[in-house]
Amino acid sequence: MFHRRINIFTGNFGSGKTEIAVNFAMKLKEKKEKVAIVDFDIVNPYFRTMDVKKELEKKGIRVIASMYANTNVDVPAVSPEVNTLFEDESYTAVFDVGGDDLGAKIVSAFKEEFMKEDYAHFFVVNVKRPMTNTAEKIKEMIASIEESAGIKVTHLINNTNLMEQTSLEDILEGDSIIREISKELNIEVAFTSGFKEIIRKASGKVSGEMFYITKMIKLPWEKDFCV
Amino acid sequence: MGKKLLMKGNEVIAEAALRAGCKCYFGYPITPQTEIAHYFAKKMPEYGGTFIQAESEVAAINMVYGAASAGARVMTSSSSPGISLKQEGISYIAGAELPAVIVNIVRCGPGLGGILPAQGDYFQAVKGGGHGDYKMVVLAPSSVQELYELTVEAFNIADKYRIACMIMGDGILGQMMETVEFKDKEEIISADKSWALTGTKMEREQNVITSIYIDPEVLESHNLKLQRKYKLIEENENRVEIFNCEEADVIITAFGTVARIIKNVIKMAEKEGIKIGLIRPITLWPFPNEAFEKYATVPKAFLSVELNAGQMVEDVRLAINGKNKVFFHGRMGGMIPTQNEILDKVKEILKG
User: Fold this and answer.
1) How far is B175 from chain A (nearest CA, A)?
2) Which one, A158, B35, B65, B67, has least CB within 10 Å?
3) How far apart are CA B106 and CA B308, in angstroms?
4) Does residue B158 sit at the A interface (CB-CB below 8 Å)?
């Protein structure tokens, strides 16, 4: 799951895309020399890749974001630096795209570049989010994102969670809905993702690899002290 | 209780409003609260209500005046610069005694400022940003669950007293995701709305909704009536969370999400043998004076921590009324105080 040069993450806003994209980039860095993550979020200026820029750069991951993003100014812009990733093929790239079809629009601007390569387009789902809590709604969301992005979804990620209140039943509920969609749309389930201490118990019971993530995007009361 | 969902604060405001019977939403987009409008736009048709993206914030608040006059449960939302634009309308709504819910997901100012979280609109909300002698009830939740409960509550308070009720949260509260558990059914008070403009059908006298009273004696008596109503609200509606205050060395006061940082500071301080209490006003107006009077002489000092240059601290000082020292620590511009920084401030105070 980590061998493709181009890895795109889309989903409903609030599905956990950014957290997963950031963790995916960190996993990639363990395997590859040159890894870059692109903050492709033109929708939401809060809680995005830019917020963990320093930590990612410390790990040797290149972070590409709009020049406005480091000020959190609300400008829907993408850095022209993105183009260097299509020219310099020594990089493995992760694209953290904004939420819903609105956020996925930016992908279509680079559609031709993506189509030239063997890309992976991961669609992140949390069935505990109100706009993606049924198979019907999720399928609609996939269709609208594919239309807006101009490229097909190639993999599904089950990121069903209620944060620290997630139960095994929640993860299994997500798995059953996502498995149904996978069968119907013929899209592979790549991962079941979440915090290790929470999703470990689902191992062997769910589809896709287990993808354990570390919380990188933090709230003010989650920073410099943990209880 | 119903099913648990993972939701963003802004989404929860809209969902709670719909559950509370809100039939009209009028607003104009502005970061960091636009998801409220997105959610209403998607969901309002299911509830048979009206969603309008108005041409401006001024238009939206006047639409609120209209819908409230007709007796509908109505909401508008914005963030700081947009709320400034609504001030004239809010004063008119106060004058005409109309029930309405106004949401301010506060960002930093002054002016266009920035889009990051702040609490710099405390004075505007609590002391009256518009003209004339009026008040509005201001609720300050600190979690997504509380945001849901207080939004429903806001509609009830608004109807009960015919008053504008504001939900004030900072940008973090609007944007953060948290688990929320909805009730199967909301408790909705049935208020008498026989004053509303619903058409006389030629069967009754006309109702009149107005804020203009040209005769000075009539206007003074209208004002005195408003003041009696505000007094009643002060007596009945103030809400506060008191935490760890018995025998506290220092009592910190904070509202909204800042109180959550303080709760971690309390745990940090405990390890160092310092006892910190927290008084968290949930209603910013009416201000919970009694809680402060009760604990006024307990700690060595009070410390108000806010995302502004020192606004609520003035009300804390009025409530403490000279019985203790009141210190202030604030950050602005979207900067958030760290737990270490607040604990250092507490230690500095204790050193004297």
Assistant:
1) 7
2) B65
3) 11
4) no
CA distance B197 to B67: 9
Q: Which residue has the tokens 């389930």?
A: A189
Question: Is A193 among the domain residues?
Answer: yes
3-state SS assignment for residue B201: coil
Tokens of A159: 């990121």
B115 and A126 in contact by Cβ < 8 A? Answer: no
8 Å CB contact of B179 and A163: yes
Q: Can you tell me whether residue B303 is helix, strand or coil?
A: strand
- In the block, which residue shows the tokens 């079941």? A192
Other CB atoms within 10 A of residue A159 CB: 28
User: What residues form DSSP beta bridges with B137?
Assistant: B165
> Alpha-carbon distance A213 to A196, whole Å?
7
Q: How many CB atoms lie within 10 A of CB B217?
A: 8
CATH number, residue A139: 3.40.50.300
Q: Which helix (H) or strand (E) holds B284?
A: strand B283-285
**Three-state secondary structure call for residue B131:** coil
The position carrying tokens 């203009």 is B212
Residue B98 phi/psi, 5-degree rounding, is -105, 140
DSSP type of residue B306: E
Query: Residue A172 corresponds to which tokens in the numbers above?
Result: 């299994």
Task: Answer whether residue A1 is part of any domain.
Answer: no
Does A224 fall in a domain? no
Specify burial of residue B150 (Cβ count, 10 A radius: 0-12, 13-18, 19+): buried
pLDDT tens-digit series, residues B223-265? 999 999 999 999 999 999 999 999 999 999 999 999 999 999 9
Domain count, chain A: 1
Q: What letter represents residue A170's amino acid?
A: D
Q: Report the alpha-carbon distance of residue B53 to residue B60 in Å, rounded.
A: 8
Find tokens 């210190």 and name the residue: B327
**Global ipTM:** 0.88
The answer for A57, left when phi > 0, alpha when psi is -120 to 50, beta otherwise, is: alpha
Residue A191's domain spans which residues?
Answer: 6-219
φ, ψ of residue B11 in degrees (nearest 5): -65, -40
Chain A contact for B73 (CB, 8 A cutoff): no
A97 assigned to some structural domain: yes
Please judge whether B334 and A72 are an interchain contact, meaning their C-beta atoms are less than 8 angstroms apart. Answer: yes
**Rounded-to-integer distance, Cα B74 and Cα B89, Å:** 14
Instruction: Specify whether the CB–CB gap between B269 and B132 falls below 8 A.
Output: no
CB contact under 8 A, A72 and B116: yes
Measured between alpha carbons, how far is B105 from B121 in angstroms, rounded to an integer? Answer: 10
The domains found in chain B, sorted by start residue, are 4-236 (3.40.50.970), 241-351 (3.40.50.920)
Span A138-154, pLDDT tens digits: 999 999 999 999 999 99
